[in-house]
Amino acid sequence: MTHSGILSLDEFDAHVADGTIDTVICAAPDPYGRTVGKRLTVNAFRSLCLNGGGVNASSFVFAVDLEMNPLDLPVSNASNGWADIRLVPDLATLRRVPWEPNCAMVICDAYEADRDELLSVAPRTILKKQIARAAEEGLAFQFASELEFFLSQTPPRKAWELGYQDLAMTSDYRSDYQLIQSARDDWFIRQIRNMMPEFGIPIESSKPEWGLGQQEITLDYCGALEMADRHVLFKYGVKQLANQSDLTVTFMAKPAIDEVGSSCHLHVSMWSTDPTPAPLCWAKEGGGMSEKFGSFVAGQIEHAADVVLMFAPTINSYKRFQPDQFAGSAIALGADNRSCAFRLVGEGASFRVENRIPGADVNPYYAYAATIAAGLDGVQRDLPTPEVFSGNAWDDAHQIETVPTSMHAALHRFAECKMLRAAFGDEEFEHLLFSSQNELLAFDSGAVTDWEKKRYYERV
Prior knowledge:
The chain is α+β, with helices and mostly antiparallel strands.
């Protein structure tokens, strides 16, 4: 890293004084893991955010579908006038934007307009609640998102006009790990590797993936909230950089049924909350899983099918759950076994579990919150350490449970999940349930697909 990218207020003031920064982007993660907010002048940022109560915004940004159509949810509806909330900057996230050199950016928490209380249904609030529950047990968690995405050489406006059909991808044949393709793509990928650290997001590595035009970027691990922030800012940055380079990027879970999907593998390790945190995953005697970490992993496995909606939030997410495509569909625990949904990786202080269920379309705040909630349930109930599966988990489908392969089934399991309702709270749980039900209804009742036309147009 050239520098961390994170700004202290003194550093911010110095950049303002020498004219390098004249705009501050106040951003909050929305229910789909996108950044929403406002661009402020420096004077407005100082008066509203540093010396005031935050930036006003409509609560409807937390109660809309992907098309930004308002939903009739308790937090925001016609009856309450889509009332305002306040976006209050978390100054620990203040950073430079390398590709917009005159801009600083800060992640904001959503607060109620008239009281000093976090908006309960905001994604960042939902994750903070689970982090606090873990802290009561003396536990903290380190996460890392391992994101994949597809790149097309077709410029964004042209791709939109084409309906995202027949796009020219950046590779012509399968090039997983191939350094020739890596060199061809590096004129763009190096922008990500070099600029993300300057944006406060350390990068470990990059490589071409199996799909045509597919890439994988590995982010360094950190605490749960910071990693969720880095995840959404990473996606924001990749989309910005791609747009500036006339490339089209997608984080869809399954852009084409005859193409591999894009994953977001979630790596998580357990730590103490001591002044000097200690890793709690590795058994001091004999190695392997510690008893407490075994219970944490067991909770994740037990509840995986019930909370899969938090890992697979869209209709498209479920098209990714194909056997033999490394999509984490078989709910088993393996030791460095990519056929299993949960994979043990590393040893000693780096020992962790990788959840392979989420796709690249995941909202990290929801996914991390569900991971912590499910794991804590295992810890609190002292669930026994799960057995480690050996072999090809996809070949044992009659013995191993698989994740729901449709949003209908996932919604049914989610609606009945008492563990997550209790962990999240009724208001938050109902908010997420209704939003997902609306997404499913929009597809079931509002779309005629190409598949339907091809299958039925002339034959029925």
